[in-house]
Amino acid sequence: MLHILKSSVWPILVVVVLLGCSRDPNKLIESGKKYIAEGKYREATIELRSAIQLSAQSAEAHYQLARAYLYLGSIADANQELNQTVLLQYANLDAQLIRGYLLLLDRNFREAKDTAEYILQRDASNIRAQILLGNSYSGLVQRNDSLGELKNSFEVEPALSAAYMDLSVGNANWQRQPEAAEAAYKKAITMDTRSALPHSALASFYLQSQRTADAESEFKTAAALDPMSSDAQQALALFYASAGKSDLAEQIYSGFARSRPNDLDQQVRLADFYNGIGKPEQAIEVLTKVAAKDPKYLPAKRRLVDLHLQQNQYGKAAEIADEFLKEAPNDPDVQFIKGRVLVAQKNTTEAIEVLQKVVKLRPLAAAGRFFLGSAYAQAQDFQRAEAEYSAAVQNDSTFVRAYLPLAELKLKGGDPETAARYARQALGLNPRLSEAHLILSRALITQKNYPDAAAEIKAVLDQQPGSVLAKYHQALLSVAQGNLPQAQLQLEAAFKTNPDQADILGALAGVYLQRNMPDKAIQTVQQAISQHPDKPDYYKILAQLFLTRNSKMDAEQAFEKAVSLDARDVYQRIALADFYVRTGSFEKAVSTLENVIREDQRNAVAKPRLAELYLRNKDYDKALKTAEDLKATSNTDALVIKARVLLAQTKRKMQSLSCKKQCEANPPPLWPTTIWVRPTHR
Q1: What are the residues whose beta carbons fall under 8 Å from the beta carbon of 350, sequence distance 6 or more?
Q2: Tens of pLDDT along 564-604?
Q3: Whole-prediction pTM value?
Q4: Domains located in the chain, CATH noted
Q5: I want to staple 375 with a disulfide (CB 3.0 to 4.6 A). Which of 60, 221, 351, 385 is the partner?
Q6: Counting Cβ atoms within 10 Å, is residue 30 exposed (0-12), middle (13-18) or buried (19+)?
Q7: Please, which residues have CB within 8 angstroms of residue 292's CB and are 6 or more apart in sequence?
Q8: How far is CA 63 from the centre of its chain?
């Protein structure tokens, strides 16, 4: 019996010992650090979170968890852990440096300056802190090793990004201190004459200050001091590209990629460069070689998908996505690629479902949020679209692509002030982003700030003298200023050279209407349709023009024609239903939405609209059934519809009861007592 007890105790003791080891916070921290070194960042977060549960006061555990989050690109989570780190161990200078840059990214310039000075008081030779001090005066953030480990959050995937971010743009309550900034950068150079970092920082400052020759000199110096630094080489190449010297930029990118044939990230950057200068074929060639070299390297496949989508080669893009799905059907990265393809194909309902799963698995991934927002925008669910775009920039304040649709949505929603702020934030990340300049110009036009709007349009024309979009915006400015004849000439000239631009045609038709030339507006649009009969937007413009003349039948026919050109897009038919409601053709609207739902039973956009129409027609049973069907995709919308049905039914009952009580209190006059009775025949 004793032998049996002894033999059974041993396994228990082993388990207890193992549990005791796994419950040691120091060992968990070491395990987390080991995972970080091996590139297993998610595994590291599990170990380090466990360590914090056991020892919440461990500054080292919080700091290492912040590092793991930075590698995953989860800046918000990293910031939270860094704040906890310095609360527990204020003298952790590495944590202070990263936190200082995060303060800078949040435009807390004063606190960033104080942080830099604190580090320098304890380590006067800290060159990164000295650059941070200069940046707190200039509002710049360089995308290189001066960021310390924060740089890892910007390198979750290789990207052809600007060499620096300019956070000084759009900050009315803060002024640059250029003299102090230049002095700080030059002091950093004296601290380590062999380092490329301070020269890159000074170069970005000179570029911000429009001292182009000085900037070029410093970029060259940085590249010469560290010829193997991809950051220094890329900064010089980007400078040449922005200066219109694409040949010199190409020499640097291609030469650097050839010198590092096994550096797949660098090959991807070369492909990005080719795509950026309008050479998509060469970009595809580079990426195809990378994908053949390492079939599991997702960045190359993602870009191949994007390039095929840009060229409307949906079949090739879908083929790559389906290949991946076969190999790893549950991988969030693979699901993301599939969702991206579905958005481009306007298979919106399925795209939303796929990307919702991606966001659930990777809630902090900015790209997933962005494309889910794009899918919602396609579905005309602008409230949810805005929420996802906002989440993207909250998770990654450097994700420039999300600022633009946010600005557009705010502008369309009548909030030009917030639209301008988003556009300026985008320009802070990429000062040469023409789309951001033009959105900002429209926001300024809405605010009647015409001089600044003209300056933003000029900034685009300085970069791209033949920009049609910039000239279109010049016409919008002329309209706002009341100079309709000039606007008409500008739009006519723009449309003549670009007859496939619906925005220009719509604006031109609008000017004709304002100048009391409705016939000319209709004639111009009809002529454009005869030349481009496959443009749905042209028919929609014609429909709007017919409405201004109260030609309801002609308007509906024009809109129906627009929808027929893209019959697979159910959201175009939903737009047609909305148009029917506007023209008062409610039965047609109901029929159109019912057909959409029959074809796309998961469509969460058509169902609320149909329920609204059922409510209007007091068809409460159908409204309730539609709400019940909607529960699977949008429980909130379903509950709202049910509540409205119950409210309408209750109101109807109350009205009936009120009428009954009123009748009882005030009975109507009695019928005459003498009633004619038909005599009976004997």
Answers
A1: 342
A2: 988 778 888 888 999 999 989 999 999 999 998 888 888 87
A3: 0.69
A4: 567-645 (1.25.40.10)
A5: 351
A6: middle
A7: none
A8: 29
